[in-house]
Structures are given as C-alpha cells and as structure tokens.
Design a protein that fits this description.
The structure holds two protein chains of two kinds. By secondary structure, chain A is of the alpha/beta class. Chain A contains 16 helices and 19 strands. In chain A, helix 1 packs parallel to helix 9. The radius of gyration of chain A is 23 Å and the shape is elongated. The relative contact order of chain A is 0.15. Chain B starts with a helix and ends in a 5-residue tail after the last strand. In chain B, the strands form three sheets. Chain B has a two-stranded antiparallel sheet. A two-stranded antiparallel sheet of chain B has the order 2-5. A two-stranded antiparallel ribbon of chain B has the order 3-4. The chains are: A alpha/beta, B alpha+beta.
Chain lengths: ~425, ~90
C-alpha cells in the first residue's frame, strides 16, 4: 500500500490551504479531487472577506485572482410589487487590501492549487475517495478509485455534505431544517455595462442581497455579485421550507420569477447565461458544528460546518482557508510528537477555539434562531413597501399627516411584535 | 417526465461529462415515498418528477451534485453517491 504523510480529501479552499501550509513546512501531502480540476465541483455565491485572512497565508492573497473589490453593499426589501433599496458605499472598503472581493471558484481554486503544487503538494484529480481505511478503530488512509492509500492523517475537506465525516462517525446525515440550497446563474456582460448598470466606479464591485417576496415567505433570500465581466445571480432557500409549506413551488421557478422582477431584469438584459450551479449550505451555525477530529482524521471547511449567515453577511470561504491552515498546524504538532491519535490531534480544536473561526461562530450563535422567523421573509418587506407607498403617494384626497399614515399602517399590536423581533435581533 | 425545456436549456450551458453508472438511484419500493415528493420541489435542477402512476422518477442527467436530495430524502430512500472521478458536472465558473 502506497503511503503518504497526509492525504487531503477535496481540492476546495480548505483542502488547498491545508496542503499549501503543509507543503510549505516540508510535509508530504497529496490532495485527492474528484473533479477534472480543482474548482470543478465547487460553488460560491459569492464573495470572500479578506481581512480575517491577514494571518492566514498572507503572502498569497495580494496576488489572488479575485474578481472585484466590493465597495457597495446593497440591501433590497422586496414585496409583491414594490421594493426598497438601501445602498451603502465606502471608500474604506476599497483601500488595499480591500475589505472583500467577489470571486469565482473555477479561477480561484485552480490558482490556489498551482500555488500549493509550487510548494511541493501533490494533486490527484479525477479521483473519488470512496471510503476511509480503518485499522483498530483508527483512520489510516483512504480508498480512492479502487486503490488503498495510507496516511498518518487524513484531512476531510469534502464540503458541506461531508461523506467522509459521516463515515468517520463524526456526523449524521443533515436535517432539512439546518440546510439551505443555494443556486445561481453566472451571466456574462461587458465590464463597462456592469459598471454603468450598477453605478460602479471603475473596477469596483457591488454585493446586493434581497429579502422578501422573491422566496414566497420562505427562509432565504436572493443575491447578486458583480464579477469582472459577469454577474452571479441566485437564491438561497432553506430546504425544509422548499420541501413543505405554501407556496409549494419548484426551486428553479423562484429563480425564473426573480429574474423577471423589475429590480433585476434591466440589470441582466442582453447578458448571456453561461453556467447554472447549485450548492448545499449549512445554516445551523455554531449549533451545527461537529467534533472536527478523530484518530488519524481532521475535518475542515464546510465539511466541519464552518459557515455563518447573520443576514447582512454570509460567510464560509475565509473559515475554510483558516481552518485548513489550522488543520495543517495541528498536523505539524502531531508530527513532532509522532502521535496522530485523537488526543494529539485535538490541538486542532484549541487552535480553532482561539481563532476568528470559532469566535465568530460563537458570537453569532443566536443568529439562526433570529433568522428562523417567517415575518422577516414576508411580513416586514411587505409592510415596509405598503408604508412607503402611502407616504410617497399624493392622491385625490387631501393628504394625511405622516404620523396618521404610520399609525394606520402600524397598529399597537404590530408595533409590539416589531419591538419583540428587534429585541431578538439586538441579541444577535 | 424530465426537466422542463427551460431547465434543459439552462443545464445545457454546463460542462457535463457523462458516466456509465447512475450515481443516485431511488431504492426499489420507495417510489411513492413522500420524502421523494419533497425532492421534486427542492432539487435546483428539477430532476425529480412524478409520473401518472404517482411514482417519483429521477432523471440524473444534468445533476449539479449539490446533495440536496440526500438531505431531503435520506439514504433509506436514495442510494446516493457522488459520480466517480472525472465524471459529472465540471463547473468552469463556480
């Protein structure tokens, strides 16, 4: 049986970051990827927040093939035939290193894999890891493409569904309540057209989140990210809500209807849809985390549940990079002791606890409970639209005082409900 | 039934490498399971549909390999795996 020091399952951001960091330290590491190339099975919304990564492979991010720095944060509340948009622009977000960048994983992951290979990591593509090899209860390698490969440590970076963590007994198959489906279209448009339509200064970019009628009151929302010469447009909807409840509608229909809305249609007009993708997203936050280590095994990135939706920010990729680097550090420590048992590898948990990964997940541990409120996804966007409609309208009848209009639209019991939800929101 | 013409056109934009085996199959006897009916609504590629006998069918061509149906239906209903290496959707943009 061929044997390596470390086998990484999956060439995503977690796996490639771990491989880079290990190779840099002279550790023998092979990354096994089932796609034709790194990124072939990977999908993001999406954007990457770079500042948390200043301590994780900092030399890399200056030259990364990002799309556009996000300087415009846009939030749109959508009701049946109305919408309200808030747009925040900041020079500070543009100052290098920019606060966040839009990314396409096809480009980013291939680039990162080349960087890892330059450091000495080995990459095997077109190869599916079928199982973990176990001996005396310890994980001692993998079965890939019918071949047994041994390793001191296996790092499972096989994404949100992580069959590896499941095979290791660290997690059970997820519940529809804790996961959402993200699906998106990449729509090509000339860079100048994107800048004109989104009102962007030069190479700058925008990230727009949509909340309300577009998901039919279901937990979720829409997103639009500007890439260099394409738009990433999609929806995220919780699986449980798609599978049951009113309206019962096929997921793709929500996206088709979203594209026809007046807030979206002019932005994508004349663009060419070049790819359609779907991805699983953990929405459980802190409560969905698993124990990310076992005898001979570490779990990083989405596979360990490291993703965080707090409404205004949706994060995962920087957790993937950081957890990959920390997994590499834990391996390095275990290697010095020549002890790859769970006890030795539990150093990974300590490293995670001391990092922004676990700190942020813990700080926002109440976010999923706050977001689990149907009023957020239907009632508030609708009420906001109705109220603004009345305030802006000049009709045949003499116009009421604004205070009278507001009292009519927002009853005392309604105001009480709003206060209660606000209080929950402030706890987040 | 299979995906709508609109969805077929969408999926047709993806680079897709066909394989010999179906990587996801409905386990015999579960064709009318309510969990499968939920997959009709949850699958972002619209690959699940109900036939005139009330059985759910899966047309695996165009699968985005997102794993949603595994979460919705569970492994009691579906024999679920990723396609073997070098097979299936190959995202160019992601």
């Amino acid at each position: 049986m061929e044997k390596f020091e470390v086998i990484v399952v999956g060439a995503g951001l977690a796996g490639l970051s771990a491989a880079y960091a290990l190779a840099q330290e002279g550790v023998e590491v092979v990354v096994i990827e089932r796609g034709d190339y790194p990124g072939a099975k990977n999908v993001t919304g999406g954007r990457l927040y770079t500042r948390p990564l200043q301590n994780y492979l900092p030399e890399l991010w200056k030259e990364a093939p990002f799309e556009r720095p996000v300087t415009n944060e846009i939030v749109t509340l959508i009701s049946s035939d109305k919408s309200l948009t808030l747009r925040f622009r900041s020079d500070e977000f543009a100052r290098p290193p920019a606060h966040s960048y839009t990314v396409l994983r096809g480009t980013l992951d291939r680039w990162l894999s080349r960087k890892a290979e330059e450091k000495g990591a080995m990459l095997v593509t077109k190869n599916r890891v079928d199982d973990l090899l176990k001996k005396d209860g310890k994980i001692v390698g993998v079965l890939a493409g019918g071949e047994e490969l041994g390793a001191d440590v296996v790092i499972a970076c096989d994404g949100a569904l992580s069959l590896m963590a499941e095979k290791a007994g660290l997690r059970s198959p997820g519940s529809p309540h804790d996961y959402a489906v993200g699906f998106k279209e990449v729509i090509e448009l000339p860079a100048q057209t994107i800048e004109d339509r989104l009102g962007l200064k030069g190479q700058e970019g925008a990230a727009q989140l949509f909340l309300g009628d577009l998901t039919g009151g279901k937990f979720g929302g829409g997103f639009l990210y500007t890439n260099r010469s394409s738009l990433s447009l999609g929806l995220v909807i919780r699986i449980k809500d798609l599978a049951e409840g009113n309206p019962l509608k096929e997921a793709p229909t929500f996206l088709d209807e979203f594209k026809e809305r007046p807030e979206i249609a002019p932005l994508i007009a004349g663009g060419e849809m070049v790819e359609y993708s779907g991805h699983l997203i953990s929405e459980a936050g802190f409560s969905g985390l698993i124990r990310p280590f076992a005898d001979g095994l570490l779990v990083a990135g989405d596979a360990a549940g490291f993703s965080l939706n707090v409404g205004l920010t949706v994060r995962g990729m920087e957790f993937a990079v950081a957890s990959g680097v920390l997994a590499a550090q834990a391996v390095k420590q275990a290697r010095e002791k020549k002890d790859f048992s769970a006890t030795s590898l539990s150093a990974y948990q300590t490293l995670l606890d001391d990092s922004f990964v676990l700190k942020d997940l813990k700080t926002f541990q109440h976010a999923p409970a706050f977001l689990d409120n149907p009023r957020l996804f239907q009632h508030y966007p609708q009420m906001t639209g109705d109220l603004l409609q009345s305030l802006f309208t000049v009709g045949l009848e003499p116009k009421q005082k604004f205070s009278t209009t507001i009292r009519e639209k927002v009853s005392w019991s309604e105001a009480w409900e709003i206060l209660k939800d606000l209080r929950k929101g402030l706890k987040v | 039934m299979s995906p709508t013409p609109n969805m077929k056109a969408k999926l047709g934009k993806n680079v897709f490498k066909p394989g010999k085996e179906k990587h996801i199959t409905i386990r015999p006897g579960f064709e009318k399971d309510p969990r499968l009916k939920a997959a009709i609504y949850a699958c972002p590629a619209g690959l699940y549909s109900e036939n005139s006998k009330g059985e759910v069918e899966l047309d695996i061509d165009g699968c985005l390999e997102c794993g949603i149906c595994r979460i919705v239906c569970g492994t009691e209903v579906l024999d679920w795996n990723y396609p073997v290496g070098g097979v299936g959707v190959q995202f160019r943009f992601g």
